[in-house]
């Protein structure tokens, strides 16, 4: 019996030793491929962007705008480095990220993206809800069953409306349609509509870094937690409506 | 005396211990469930944590099969199953043991694959139920691992103290698995701390080590279930050595006046021992009475002897 107790305490010490060492270190966790250190040495953050309104706007070869682009600019300022923008497709960027040729990829990526297994996703910094909106003066509704509802053809909401028994109408634009509208909550607000309680889906927005680069992702998440609170993102989303 | 419907009863003092063992197993199940929940919430994308979690889930199997056995093994025999149900738990344990083995192999494959594909685990801030916490998820995983160690190790010790007295194999195997649990947790913890220091492979290596432990558990349990189902000769649960009970029985019965020659064959049948005693009787008295007497003497020798058949013969071929 005594020797078993002995091994248990060895285990306990074994556990604590690296823990104490770890907290004593300046940067913990570390990057296996030293991404964060290299960003700082290089003085450049290599960011891959995919155009996706309102998160990343603009075209190659210009400087991108949008919420995520401006957040990343602030992040680069915090790291005291410059940004090297790379325009391209999500596929290209994720491939590059996998091989440490980029440091961050942004463009309205959500957590349900299947690339999550190949690259590192930050925790969602913003959760947006796709909801149904109605005109401010119109009747209040609690269900879309049997109703005609307008939506953008590429919104990914068609089947969700179908499930709820609505008759979805695909529209190229949602301004001044004479029926309830299904869209992201911020877009409903931008359209001047009133949000109902009918939530169709949630989208959790993340940014991507190379897989396992834990110092970099911790730093980026820290930044997002402080500078990209839901309230602030919503303000940015609302601010865009004046553009 | 009717032998057909005889039911096995534990001696009084063992009955007490058994009740304690049952309580301990219920406690084990309760704590294991809390552990699997905590581990699941802390798991993140660490391969080692995933493997340790699967092991925790698997360690629910022995206590559950023990409790199920307690419930059903003493059911009286029926017309269709005249030998009772003592071996039913063995059968279910065999199935569970094979499942543990297969899962262990799969976990090893999974860990090996992660290693070959150079999967770099991303451990960022701890994120739960839509909230991010300002703490590295690795620390949370280590805290969960520490929690996952304490109850099983304590309960494992308490069960180990009961197991030899009760000679309950499932209890013993379970206690041993619990006791070995801390090694799993240390392996997983080292894997996570390794990742923290920038060694991406530490996670997969830890997962592989844990999966080897699961495979070991699987192999041990399959072996045990096999020898149980084959009806091995009575064996001590702790040392795995044969008890030599058949020899002791022959010696004891051979000394009886009415016995000229004796041959004994015993097998384990679940938690009890049964078998046949062949005797050459020395006098031609009331055979039935003599046989019953021999049987009583034989059964009194060990508390786990049950349903012995005493068969009078003219000669013994050994």
Automatic annotation (TrEMBL), chain A:
InterPro entries membership: Solute-binding_3/MltF_N (IPR001638)
Solute-binding protein family 3/N-terminal domain span: 44-240
Family: Belongs to the bacterial solute-binding protein 3 family.
SUPFAM superfamilies tied to this protein: Periplasmic binding protein-like II
Record's keyword annotation contains Signal: yes
Gene3D superfamilies (alphabetical): Periplasmic binding protein-like II (3.40.190.10)
Keyword Cytoplasm among record annotations: no
Annotated protein name in UniProt: Extracellular solute-binding protein, family 3
Keywords (A to Z) from UniProt: Signal
Domain of life: Bacteria
Pfam families, sorted: SBP_bac_3
UniProtKB/TrEMBL annotation, chain B:
GO biological process, one term: zinc ion transport
GO molecular-function terms, A-Z: monoatomic cation transmembrane transporter activity
UniProt-listed InterPro entries: Cation_efflux_TM, Cation_efflux_TMD_sf, CDF_Transporter
GO cellular component terms given for this protein: membrane
Domain Cation efflux protein transmembrane: 30-230
Cellular compartment(s): Membrane
Protein topology in the membrane: Multi-pass membrane protein
Transmembrane segments: 21-41, 53-70, 90-109, 136-155, 182-202
Keyword hit for Membrane: yes
Alphabetical UniProt keywords: Membrane, Transmembrane, Transmembrane helix, Transport
Protein name (database record): Cation diffusion facilitator family transporter
